[in-house]
Amino acid sequence: MDKPKFCGSSHVLRLFWIIYVISQTQARENFLKVLSSYNFKICS
Question: So where are the chain's domains?
């Protein structure tokens, strides 16, 4: 039951993650790659 809950709340974490990554790098392709692997690690 922890996993679905964590995946649900990850939407909020994702917003902060997006803001953080954008402020760290202006490269959108790199940003999308990082975000994708981040999502896989959380919800796999």
Answer: 2-43
